[in-house]
Amino acid sequence: MKITLLQIPLVWADTNANLTMSEEALLSAPQSDVYVLPEMFTTGFLMKPEGVVSSVDDALTWMKKMSVKLDAAIAGSVAVREGGNYYNRLYFVKPDGSVAHYDKRHLFTYGGENRCYTPGNERTIVEWGGVRFCLQICYDLRFPCFSRNVPVSSLTPPPSSFTPPPSSFTPPPSSFIPYDCLLYVANWPASRRSVWDVLLRARAIENQCYVIGVNRVGDDPVCHYDGGTAVIDAYGRTVIQARDNTQDIISCHLDMEKLRAFRKKFPVLQDAD
């Protein structure tokens, strides 16, 4: 699978300008199976959504249009209003018009996100092109238990009469493992960049998966963002990384055969708690 990550600056609280810029970036990018935009790519990390975010989700309509035009999936988070609540919602849109979404579970209290938005309460895993993506947003990166790639068979505690398997025991197939790729979109400030770099690698190693991290660049009224957009493989190695402090578009292939071979050879997830 070929995936393209768009590390772009964002115009503060200006949906139309950001959609125009994002469209130009997408149309200039190489043909891919999936395109990923940053967190709140239509507004920046907005803590006063009233008057800026409407209940009519123009961003989702735009994502559907671009997905069809590019014949590819498009992912990115936007601030949305649903009923009387606002959500930081990550959409994963497929060219057939189907949509999966994930509402950010861990709201950034330090920045006041918890005062403006309602947290989600469920993980979302979506399959596209033979790859299963677990959708996550920015601050979620700091909470490994929520994103743990625990095989389905290990979620139920063994009975008291459980007998350890013989040495010839064959682990369950990789289909028991929930996902292949953790996908993080972010507005992660430069002041905490070293944490971003370390945790992307940690999540990849401990979950034996690819990790995609797409961050923005530029400035908003509070923070400076220097990027760090990257793809990390299951060994914790950087597959590709965008240039710092620069609008950049990067692409790479996710090698699923290589990932499956590594999981089969070194089945650490089967020993998970």
Short characterization:
The protein has 273 residues and is an alpha/beta fold.
What does this protein look like?
A six-stranded mixed beta sheet has the order 5-4-3-2-1-14, covered by helices on one side. A six-stranded mixed beta sheet has the order 6-7-8-9-12-13, covered by helices on one side. Strands 10-11 form a two-stranded antiparallel sheet. The chain is of the alpha/beta class and 273 residues long. The chain has five helices and 14 strands. The two termini are 31 Å apart. The relative contact order is 0.16.
Q: Top keywords for this entry?
A:
about 270 residues; six-stranded mixed beta sheet; 14 strands; about 20% helix; alpha/beta
Element layout with pairings:
Blueprint: E1 2-7, H1 15-28, E2 34-36, H2 58-70, E3 73-82, E4 85-93, E5 99-103, H3 113-116, E6 125-128, E7 131-137, E8 181-186, H4 193-207, E9 210-215, E10 217-219, E11 224-226, E12 230-232, E13 238-241, E14 248-253, H5 256-265
Parallel strand pairs: 1-2, 2-3, 7-8, 8-9
Antiparallel strand pairs: 1-14, 3-4, 4-5, 6-7, 9-12, 10-11, 12-13
Helix pairs in contact: 1-2
